[in-house]
Amino acid sequence: MSAPVVIPNLLNGGWRQLPFEPFRDGVEICHLHRDTTGATDSPHWALLRYAPGARVPEHLHTGLETILVLEGAQGDAFGTYEAGTMVLNAEGSRHAVYAAQGCVVLIQWQRPVQILDGS
């Protein structure tokens, strides 16, 4: 049996002590749980840290995506989501994401997203 992943004080900045790596232009990722066997139907949990002005191009959700904004604000065509907001993007939904002032989110993908605009 594996030990659980424990992140003390996550809501009060405990994520700042975790290792991040480049993910997309202006966005860094800290992988918390992911399948390393190559399976495409396995959930993935991560923290994403957006630099001010960072964007993720339009993408399609091939499974449920759950986001909890921990710091700053993340936005899309449907609104701006401040710290403490949870957003559920259903399978089949699509959007582009931006962080005007930067943000950190806890994100879970049920299945990988499909980038739509070629970026």
Automatic annotation (TrEMBL):
Designated name of the protein: Allophanate hydrolase
Molecular function terms, GO-annotated: hydrolase activity
Give the keywords, sorted.
Answer: Hydrolase
Organism source for this protein?
Answer: Pacificitalea manganoxidans
Q: Where is the ChrR-like cupin domain?
A: 17-107
Has UniProt tagged this entry with the keyword Metal-binding? no
SUPFAM superfamilies given in the database record: RmlC-like cupins
Q: Which InterPro entries match?
A: ChrR-like_cupin_dom, RmlC-like_jellyroll, RmlC_Cupin_sf
Source organism phylogeny:
Bacteria, Pseudomonadati, Pseudomonadota, Alphaproteobacteria, Rhodobacterales
